[in-house]
Amino acid sequence: MLHYRSVPEAEAVLQRNLTTAEAAWLRYSAGTHDLWLYFHNIIFLLVVYTLAPLPLAVLELTRPDAIRRYKVQPKVPVSLSAVLRCYRNVVCSFLLTVGPLQILSYPTVKWVGIRTGLPLPTWWEATAQVGVYVVVEDYANYWVHRAMHTPWGYEKIHHVHHEFTVPVGFAAPYAHWAELLLLGVPSFLGPALVPCHITVFWLWMVLRHVEAIETHCGYDFPHTPTKYIPFYGGAEYHDYHHFVGRQSQSNFASIFTYCDYIYGTDKGYRYHKDLRAKIR
Known about the structure:
Distance between the termini: 60 Å
Number of helices: 14
Helix content: 55-70%
Mean pLDDT: 90
GO cellular component, one term: endoplasmic reticulum membrane
Largest sheet: none
Strand content: under 5%
Organism: Colocasia esculenta (Wild taro)
Structural class: mainly alpha
Low-confidence stretches: none
Radius of gyration: 21 Å
Number of strands: 0
Domain Fatty acid hydroxylase: 132-265
Family: Belongs to the sterol desaturase family.
Number of domains: 2
Order of helices and strands: HHHHHHHHHHHHHH
């Protein structure tokens, strides 16, 4: 909650003119409780989850032949009913699991120092912080995901996510409620170690969500912007993990592939790629 009642008051305290973004933020957030600002995160996740996978899903339903050559597993269709069931279950999980978690974790958010006031962070500051969050989340998520593929972790929790042997964007957050809670820890770990402004926190969560949807889209498009990010896994890389399914001990990477390479959990994938290359 901002304690300034007007732009002139804020400028007097900060001893400078507010930027356009800061003035807009003041008008929006002044008098708004920090809990409600933090709760925006679940709203953003629902909007992104609904809209981000939609164009590709519509294209796959209306013009499948136009993009079939880019589909990683072209012979295994995903029905509309399965996608709708997935969407319904994920929305329920967001509202019944992630939503309450947002409220319960609010004291922790305040304790670690995620702020809502002025000044707003610079673009360089926001970029550096998100960069740290990516690295921290990627490493921590690798081990959580790998633990989910132990016999107990898979049987009790992770098998739900692997119901989709052919990934689709809408299935990115499709998982057991306990897995949603566990995977929230790596995502929050970066902001806990390097506290940020709430707007950067929103940005990080949205980017992470979009990345997960892209990774699960099931299509390997040649000119996707993420193709130019070094060590980025992407859809084709993660698709192999779902293709193998229950027995998969490969490609646990969340975003980048370096952990799989360092710890030797990409050997099956590399063998699979080499075999496909020889067949072609």
